[in-house]
Amino acid sequence: MSDETSTPPAPFPTSLCHQCVHRRDVRTARSWFLRCVKLETKYAPQPVRACPMFEPVPPVSP
Ligand code: SF4
């Protein structure tokens, strides 16, 4: 049974975009899209496996 108030799961969890500083999440109550600030088209075909513009999110310090 679905919960109307639950957050949708992350799309394409294996996508390289999840580890990239250029990703911006576009979220609503029912949807979650991975937008890219580097692409003119804004949305890469998912899942991204390799990308020449990829820059890793720096590790979070404790
Ligand atoms: S630069 Fe590449 S890896 Fe990073 S968010 Fe954009 S499409 Fe994804």
Summarize the topology.
Elements: E1 23-27, E2 32-36
Antiparallel strand pairs: 1-2
Bound molecules: iron/sulfur cluster (SF4).
Residues 16-17, 20, 22-23, 36, 38-39, 44, 48, 51, 53-54 line the site of iron/sulfur cluster.
Count the DSSP helices.
0
Distance between the termini: 37 Å
Task: Please state the overall shape, judged from the principal axes of the Cα atoms.
Answer: globular
Question: Unreliable runs, pLDDT <50, ≥5 residues?
Answer: none
Structural descriptors:
62 residues, two-stranded antiparallel ribbon, 2 strands, mainly beta, binds iron/sulfur cluster
Describe this structure in words.
The chain has 62 residues and is mostly beta strands. It has one domain (1-54). 0% of the residues lie in helices and 16% in strands. The protein is built from no helices and two strands. It has strands spanning 23-27, 32-36. Strands 1-2 form a two-stranded antiparallel ribbon. Strand 1 (23-27) and strand 2 (32-36) form a beta hairpin. The chain is globular. The N and C termini lie far apart (37 Å). The mean pLDDT is 91. Bound molecules: iron/sulfur cluster. Iron/sulfur cluster binds at residues 16-17, 20, 22-23, 36, 38-39, 44, 48, 51, 53-54.
Structure, briefly:
The protein is 0% helix and 16% strand. It has 62 residues and is mostly beta strands.
